[in-house]
Amino acid sequence: MGKDKRDKKKEKGRSLARAAGSGSRAAAPQLATYADGQPFDQVTYLEAKLILKPDRFTSVQNFRDFGKIVEKSAKKVDVGFIDDPKAGLRPEVREIVFGDTPDFRLYNNAFILRRRICYVDGFPVGDPEIVFKFRHPDEQQATAMDVRPKIAGKYRIKFKAEVLPLKDRVGGYRILYSHNCQFGLSQVHEADGSMSTLVRIFPVLATLKKSAGERISLVNEGIVEELLLPLGQLDFGKGQVGKCDIGLWRTRGEHKSLVGEFAFQVKFPSRAEISEKAKKRAAQFYISLQRDVEDWLALGVTKTGMVYRLKGNQPQSHE
Asked: CB of 196 within 8 A of CB of 205?
C-alpha cells in the first residue's frame, strides 16, 4: 500500500473520532465552562446527511424507492434496517423560514435562525419551533459558543456532529459541528423582529449588532415547504440505533424544488459509550450508500445554503 492510501485511511479514522469518538481534541472542552460556570456542552448526537438532487423526486414513490436502496446498502455492511410503518403513509408537511439581516450577517458568521411549523390536513398544528444554531467545522469553536437563550420559558440544547459528503467527490465525509438551541415560539414573549430583541434573547450575537434600528427579515423572502417521510431505523449494533428519513424542500407558491435530503441520527449519552464496532459500521454504511446513490447526490451544498442562494447571492458561510 502506498503512502497516499495509508494517509487517507488514517485521516478517515481521525475524522470519525472527531465526529463521535475519542481523542485529545474531543476531550479538551470538558475542562472548560461558559461565563456563568456552566460546563461546556458536549456532542451527544451524530447526524449524517446526504444532499440529493431535487429533480429525482416527483412523487412519494420516489421517496420509497430511495428507502429500498438504503435498506440494501445497510444489508451489505451488516447494518440492521427496521421499516417504519409511516413510510407507507403520506409525507409530513412542514413550513420553514429563516431570519437574518439584509446582509446575511448571521449566516456569514456561522449562525442560523429558523422557524418551523408543522401542518396536518392543510392546517398548522402545535407550537411553532424556533431553532438557533452555531454551525462550524471547528469543534472547539462550536463548543465554546454559548447558544443558550435569555428567556423565561423552556428550551433544549442539542449539540450535533453533522456528517456530510466531501464537497468535490463521492466516498468520503466532512464534519460540521452544530450547537443548537430550540424552543417553542410560545416560550418567548419578545418577537418584534428587531436585532435589538434578538440580541437580548441571544446575547452571543451582541458583537454582530450595528445599529439600534436594525431588523431581522425572511431570508430572500423565501418560505420553504418541506415534505418529510420517515423510512425506518438503522441498527449499528451495541445499542446504537438511529431513525432515518428522506425529505424534499421546495418553495411555497412556485413549488420550485430546491433540494432533497436523506438523513439518519443517533443519540448517545457520551462518546466513551460508543463502541468502535458501531462507529465502524456507521462509517461503512455512509460511504457505501454514497456510492450506491451517486447519481442522486448533490455535492457541495446544504439545505440552508440553497435558501440563502435563492436570489443568486453568495453568502460567505463556513459550510
From this structure: no
Domain count, the chain: 1
pLDDT at position 20 is: 57
Instruction: Return d(Cα 281, Cα 73) in angstroms, integer.
Output: 11
Q: Residue 183 is placed in which grid cell?
A: 424552543
Residues 6+ apart with CB under 8 A from 128: 115, 116, 117, 184, 185
Query: Does the pLDDT at position 13 exceed 70?
Result: no
Beta strands in 185-313 (DSSP E): 217-218, 224-235, 241-251, 257-267
CA torsion 171-162-42-277 (nearest 10°) is -40
In a domain, residue 317? The reply is no
Q: How far apart are CA 18 and CA 279, in angstroms?
A: 11
Q: How far apart, in Å, do the first and last CA atoms of the chain sit? A: 33
Whether 314 is covered by a domain: the verdict is: no
Say what the pTM is. 0.88
All three cell numbers of 40: 461546556
Q: How is residue 306 written as a grid cell?
A: 440553497
For 122, phi then psi, to 5°, come to 90, 0
Q: Which of 41, 270, 262, 75 lies closest to 156 in space, CA to CA? A: 41
Q: What is the maximum span of the chain, computed from C-alpha positions, in angstroms? A: 62
